[in-house]
Amino acid sequence: MKKLLLASAASLLIATPVLAQDDDQDDSTASEDNVIVVLGEGLPETPGTPAYSTITIDRDQIISSGSGQLEDVLENVAGFQQFRRSDSRSANPSAQGATLRALGGNASSRALVLLDGVPMGDPFFGYIPYSAVDPSRLGQIRVTRGGGSGPFGGGALAGTIELESVTSADLQTFNAYGLINDRGDTELAASAAPQWDGGYAVVHGRWDRGDGFFTTPEADRVAATSRANYDSWSAGGRLVQQLGEDVEVQARVLAFEDNRTLRFDGADNSIEGQDVSLRLVTRGPWEVDALAYGQWRNFTNVVISSTRFVRVLDQKDTPAEGLGGKLEIRPPVGEDHTLRFGADYRRSEGDLFEDAYSAFSGNLTENRFAGGVNTDFGLFAEHDWEIGALTLTGGIRADRYTIRDGYYQAFDGSGAVVRDDTYPDRSDWEVSWRAGALFDVNDAVTLRAAAYTGFRLPTLNELYRPFVVFPVVTEANEALEPETLRGWEVGADFDFDVFDLSLTYFDNKVEDAIANVTIGTNLRQRRNLDAIEAQGVEVIMGFDMGDFRLDGSLVAVDAEVVGTGFAAPLDGNRPSQTPDLAASLTASWNFMDGGRLAATLRHVSDQFEGDQENDVLPAATTVDLFAQVPLVSNLSVIGRVENLFDEVIITRNQGGSMDIGTPLTGWIGLRWGY
């Protein structure tokens, strides 16, 4: 099935005629009502979408980050966080989830990340393969904080992050760039974007490699300490073809691989993946968005003892498969009404194969196998009603989920059975809803309010896979229940000639929140807490003077654990890895055609490593720089600086064993095209 789908998508890309791009041709069409429709996008936002706290990152901001990494771009949205502060060149991939609104506490994604409508979370772990998505291939990012699952699909507990591919209108026929930093690390990328009448294609590739930096503080380094080496590549293609006046098809393929080394020689990990999707969009009186996708992923990880510096665990194979689709229909129901309804489905299957070794003899002590299957079938409907200056929106969805075929097996070095567990299948319905209102006070001021619920299934990783960050062992828990969210928010948006401001107060509560809970010395287990509660204020600001612009966001949150029974000692604690203040401010100046300067200031307050409010991760303030200066024709010189003032960023602190983030790093290179 995997080979058939990949071959079908590839043949579709190859079979389409690739014609030369005309200078006066773009990838948009105009309807009889003179509404410009850009090929390659999904259905437009509905009138009620702004009722929920939303922030948009445009293409200029996306391609102007100091690091060129997707997770760095997303950090311009204050409140976005991964489990740790490391980026995708120096973190374990399994810790790279996506969460919003201080609802963190473990490494899985509580926000739903979509690329052209397709969920990007790993089918086994739930992490986001950030290194597989080159920001220069994106045209826009829209982040909705809160809002429940709605029509997006299950898993949007803390919000939704929609990544939209760049259209050929924003690309030249050929684009390429290459950079090198002061350590000799390199970043290379290229794309081709031919257009023809009624369609276009974008074919792209990127390769990042380098010896990296030492994540271990200098005073703690030993002979076995390694730099954070990394070597990653991604390649893919996207075809957009208009089939009729109101119909278009979008096909996408993506393949990637990422290899990293963390802390010690031999502590290697890797991810790889192949994704394929096919989407049909109709824009006539009956609007339809039909999507189908397949994903195949794998993960490996070697754990090295931090005392004897030998291999103690080899997670040698974690194959996973995600299959799914979505159908959304918008019938014509009147000028002031927008109705959307449909269904979505996702099936996640994965297995773990790992070997454990003695730190003293080096002999094999156990072979372990684990895995299972999760499915989620959802039905949804949402209606927006425009009544003059007032817009009302409301929606409901029902999800039928299953957790089945779960198992865990362990055999000793001689092959004798140590453990052979199979877990009972489970299934149930979860009903969630969201509702909101917008009121346009005048042309410059809009008031809004919203309430919502949502849910997230535990991942296969949380259910069945234990892990080690030596010397701490975290056990899985096959009995985990789904997380559910209840929340509300109120806000006001101000849009003046050169200044815009958005203010939101929110109150969110995740019941049965899954967290890594300490149950013994150097021993944790994933468990359902009573709840995580978070109340806070979000501020989004923009100041536009034409060529000069300021963009900022800030979130201040009071988050705490609600715990009884086994979790009673945690009651009132701040969730692990959760800051109470985060802010980002970017100043940019387009000083000439194709020339751009940008500086980004970020601050994250202190966090706690674990659930006991111990092992502090101190606050960090960083400054990044970006410059693009045209040379001749389409050729520009690119300069980037990460962590200008060389701030020491503690990314992990377990019992005094620390990791640090990216130091001062300078990049220089050339870019052809935009």
From TrEMBL:
<feature type="domain" description="TonB-dependent receptor plug">
    <location>
        <begin position="52"/>
        <end position="160"/>
    </location>
</feature>
<dbReference type="InterPro" id="IPR000531">
    <property type="entry name" value="Beta-barrel_TonB"/>
</dbReference>
<keyword id="KW-0472">Membrane</keyword>
<feature type="signal peptide">
    <location>
        <begin position="1"/>
        <end position="20"/>
    </location>
</feature>
<keyword id="KW-0675">Receptor</keyword>
<keyword id="KW-0813">Transport</keyword>
<feature type="domain" description="TonB-dependent receptor-like beta-barrel">
    <location>
        <begin position="225"/>
        <end position="644"/>
    </location>
</feature>
<dbReference type="InterPro" id="IPR039426">
    <property type="entry name" value="TonB-dep_rcpt-like"/>
</dbReference>
<keyword id="KW-0798">TonB box</keyword>
<dbReference type="InterPro" id="IPR036942">
    <property type="entry name" value="Beta-barrel_TonB_sf"/>
</dbReference>
<protein>
    <submittedName>
        <fullName>TonB-dependent receptor</fullName>
    </submittedName>
</protein>
<dbReference type="InterPro" id="IPR037066">
    <property type="entry name" value="Plug_dom_sf"/>
</dbReference>
<keyword id="KW-1134">Transmembrane beta strand</keyword>
<dbReference type="Pfam" id="PF00593">
    <property type="entry name" value="TonB_dep_Rec_b-barrel"/>
</dbReference>
<comment type="similarity">
    <text>Belongs to the TonB-dependent receptor family.</text>
</comment>
<dbReference type="Pfam" id="PF07715">
    <property type="entry name" value="Plug"/>
</dbReference>
<keyword id="KW-0732">Signal</keyword>
<keyword id="KW-0812">Transmembrane</keyword>
<dbReference type="InterPro" id="IPR012910">
    <property type="entry name" value="Plug_dom"/>
</dbReference>
<keyword id="KW-0998">Cell outer membrane</keyword>
